[in-house]
Amino acid sequence: MKKIGIDARLYSQTGVGTYLKNLLYYLEKKELKDEFFYIYLMAEDYNRISFKNKNIIKRRVNYRWHSIGEQLGFAINLYLDNLDLMHFTYFSYPILYFKKFLATVHDTTPLLFKTGKASTKNKLIYNIKHLFFRLIIWCQIIRALRIITPTNTVKKQLINLYGKTISEKIIPIYEGVSYQIKKTKENKSLSKKFDSFFIYVGNFYPHKNVENLIKAFKNINKKYNLILLGPDDYFTKRILRCIDTSKSNDQTFLLKNPSLRDLVFFYKNAIAIIHPSLSEGFGLPLIEATYFNCPIIASDINVFKELLGNNYLSFNPSDVNDIGNKIKKFLERKPSFDYRNIISQYSFEKMTNETVKIYKEVLYGN
Prior knowledge:
- This protein has 366 residues and is α/β, with parallel strands linked by helices.
- It has two domains: 2-176 and 347-364, 3-Layer(aba) Sandwich (Rossmann fold), CATH 3.40.50.2000; 179-345, Rossmann fold.
- It has helices spanning 16-28, 43-46, 68-81, 109-112, 123-143, 152-162, 179-182, 210-217, 234-244, 260-269, 284-291, 302-308, 320-333, 340-345, 348-364; strands spanning 2-7, 35-41, 56-60, 85-88, 101-104, 147-149, 170-172, 197-201, 225-230, 252-256, 273-275, 296-299, 313-315.
- Strands 3-2-1-4-5-6-7 form a seven-stranded parallel β-sheet, sandwiched between helices.
- Helix 1 (16-28) crosses helix 15 (348-364).
- The relative contact order is 0.12.
């Protein structure tokens, strides 16, 4: 019998949360004989999540990521459970944990951009925190027996940052469309409120570059709207201020915390999705868009080229004029894209199967 731990503390967060929900959903469907999985959840998730598979065991932890409690308390919990292998699913982990582990590194954006609330604080405090942050990531990258990335782009970025010696232990595994979205029906009542619109789906961190999108959209024909769909947090307030800076900007709307039913409606009925990000590790909203055959207009960055090839209209995300011109070009020519081959490449079920294979390779050496 082998005991494998999975860090699921970010279960309810965007991005990593979708990854975790699907990893655990498809893991529970597998026939688990000799492996027992210990799933580490924050208290709010522990109380509302249950597993029917007897080989999956919940563990309650109250240690948030990027905290002293994580470095001390979480490490102690893991040692007490005497795991044979631990899977850290985020780039924050207890550096005092020295037993076998593998890590999922979703992207290198935090190393390249100020992405969190720390970026809004005193520069000296931010720089000190960022120094510790980089140290923790370095420890994770160097010590992990295997590193899972969602794309080859992230693998190349990690090699550029940390050297070729880590190349062989990095395994890219594509993600997919969440089982929750696939099972959800659209909220058709929204058709009474919204018509002739483009969408952006995601959070509003600075590297997402949504401010440039808002600026670019001011020059688009007023009969078209831009609907921004994302969480309600500090950076959401910042985007709302950006929308409000121009009284004439009456075609951009922000909807906070949309339900899955709302998201499905917008994917199915949007003219196109626009994604102006400067950096990504994968791009879940774009893969979701292909599932609903929603045309894509997005940044000309390596990761999107890897995922989509030429099946999207690209722009320079740093050039507001280019963003606007490409939206106008799309409206003039109405290009169509064939996403059938793309959809078949991306699957959370496949991702889970490949991840379990890695667990077994590390544990049993086959």
